[in-house]
Amino acid sequence: MNFKIWFIFGAILACTSAKAVSRRKKNGLYQTTKGMNQFAVELYKKTAKLHKDNLISSPLSTGIALSMVAYGARGATEYEMKSNLHLPVDDKLGQKGFLSLITTLHKIKKVNFKLVQGLFIDYHLKVKGEFSNMTKNVFKSPTRRLKFEDPENTAQFINDWCKGRTRNLIKDIVQPEDIKEGFSVLVSGVYFKGSWKSPFKTEHTSLQPFFVNSEAYKYVPMMYQKSRLRYGFLAEGEAVYAELPYDTRGSRHSLIMFVILPIKEDGLEKIEQTLGYIDYRKLHLEGHEDNIELYMSKFKIESTIDFQPILDKMGMRRMFRDRADFSGITKKPMKITKAVQKAIIEVDEAGSETTASTGLARKITSGINSSRIVLNRPFIVKIVHIPTNTILFQGHVVDPSK
Fold it and tell me: What predicted TM-score, i.e. pTM, was given to this entire model?
């Protein structure tokens, strides 16, 4: 019998000396986050091509879950996973980096942030002690043995576990029919709730047209604020970005939502496929700061993504096939059967996951200039932890009315 595993991913540097750069390259956190962001770029390009509707995902959650299992892979499976995840060659350095990253993210104040991982295995299967200790000590994910011959209670336990750690947002992630003897379930998710450092005023929100394409538009609640914001240009001037910082007062762990708007009305896909690795710390420091009029639609996105075909196209094929080698986890033959992520984000005047009323106000026109950015056509969103240059969430808004 194959031992199968089901993934559910429910998710100041102005000038440096050569010595400082050298120290960073030897630093586990630096190497790990750099690799995770490179993986995030490649993952997003493939995902955005397949998901043309509203999209939100957590590359951090996906990357951590895959990395955790990659440390138990061997042979060609190990090579495929670690090379595509851009993990440090030195396992100890990489694991030290993940521990530092997870510890750092959990120290963020003024926002509710929770990164959770859970490995649930069939009671009859035995996981190697070295792997079990690694997941517990590095990824804070102790292994839980459950009676998979009782699918109803096992599914209920996993769903309750996930629901309780994501403030009831991620529900019913597994069904009883998904639980079979000889299987294992890995749950990795990110819960995030934050408030803007400079909130939008609800009385300024009005129904305005959002152009879903060059021929059609829908009226949606459009928020407005005029405040000092950082902004700049990307993709050789073909996209403009603005920064919306979250309130992390009393904490040096700054979180920022980057909203990226293509200059051309139909330029979303080109920008998504053009953008490469970005050092968001450097981008933040080099951005212009000015009094900006920002118009942005309210939106709520729920995405369920099957990552198997995406990861397969990225080159991580072997882990889904019978020839997969996960002998660092168990002596029994094992392969990954599913890699699914469910992610939810809601944005309004106060920040993430709050509600507010909408009124009718003035009409606005589309445009970008040095003092006004109007997000009334498809745009990209990325939530980034600046100190570690880590992308927590990324996606695109193509129709906020859905």
Answer: 0.86
